[in-house]
Write a structure and sequence with these properties.
Length: about 300
């Protein structure tokens, strides 16, 4: 039967979508390799002040940025006895970005009393010297219980409606709508994450943040469309897309629900909302889709 053959082909595509990303690494889940954290670097001052020299923390404290508006080369001094040679020497009029080991060491420590830990980065400005003085700041943690509860609601709504409505149009519509919400939420998450890296092309960061979602987005969109039309393969594709987002792609982003600093262009809480909808909603799509599949095909209205 043609319908059975199409379903078998879609099953092969779905299983490939779920199994292929098994070797994905966390770095593929974030634009530019950025990830959430519990603290953020801040530059407080340059001591003594150097006219034309600007140093600040960017990308939510992940890197430092130096803009040399002086007439001399500005070099970032390495740690005493350190073989690290990747710290920049910035020519007049140039801009450089770097991850400084002194800031990294401060961020790796335990949360201090007062939620602040001072650090300093020595500079060589021509034949003179200056010091960038800053601090590592620990903001209050997010309301994790609230976001976890929202993820559970995002799971329960499509799951319950899908199970109760399995075998009827209600179940198919609920499954398709939940799938659209999941892929839409993840799309917004990727667009907002791609804007966090400061010195990289936006299109390249979109690809970096998307990863295997480039397969999941069309998988879910086609699945939702076929499900509404009553096609036998639609729920199967929805299940594959929901599992791909909830089990493979989004878990690494779940740290945003517990960590205060989130590399996202449109606000940390908005990103937490998107992650909760993708994570919980993806699991809800799996439950609803399996219920619809068990009841078998239903004629389209």
């Amino acid at each position: 039967m043609p319908g059975v053959r199409i379903a078998q082909l879609l099953l092969l595509v779905a299983m490939t979508a779920l199994l292929l990303p098994g070797g994905a690494t966390p770095a593929l889940a974030h634009a530019g390799g950025l990830s959430s954290s519990t603290s953020e670097a801040r530059v407080l001052a340059i001591d003594p002040p150097v006219p034309g020299l600007d140093v600040r923390a960017v990308e939510f404290g992940a890197r430092l940025r130096i803009e040399n508006g002086t007439g001399d080369t500005v070099a970032v001094e390495s740690l005493d006895g350190s073989p690290l040679a990747a710290l920049p020497a910035v020519a007049p009029g140039a801009v450089a970005y770097w991850v400084d080991p002194r800031v990294t060491a401060a961020a790796a420590g335990d949360r201090p009393d007062g939620d602040r830990l001072a650090w300093s980065v020595p500079l060589r400005v021509g034949t003179g010297a200056a010091t960038v003085r800053g601090e590592q700041f620990w903001p209050p943690p997010p309301a994790t219980a609230l976001w976890v509860a929202l993820a559970l609601v995002a799971l329960a709504v499509p799951a319950v409606v899908g199970v109760l409505g399995a075998g009827r149009r209600l179940g198919r519509v609920a499954l398709a709508a939940a799938t659209v919400v999941v892929i839409g939420s993840h799309l917004l998450h990727v667009f907002g994450s791609a804007g966090a890296p400061e010195d990289q092309p936006y299109a390249l960061m979109l690809l970096s943040a998307a990863g295997y979602a480039l397969l999941g987005w069309p998988l879910g969109a086609v699945g939702a469309w076929l499900t509404v039309r009553g096609h036998v393969g639609g729920p199967l594709l929805c299940v594959a897309a929901g599992g791909l987002f909830a089990i493979v792609i989004t878990p690494i982003d779940a740290f945003t629900l517990v960590e205060a600093v989130v590399p996202f262009s449109w606000g940390a809480d908005f990103d937490r909302l998107l992650v909760a909808l993708t994570l919980g909603g993806g699991l809800g799509v799996v439950v609803a889709g399996m219920a619809v599949l068990r009841r078998g095909p239903v004629p389209a209205a």
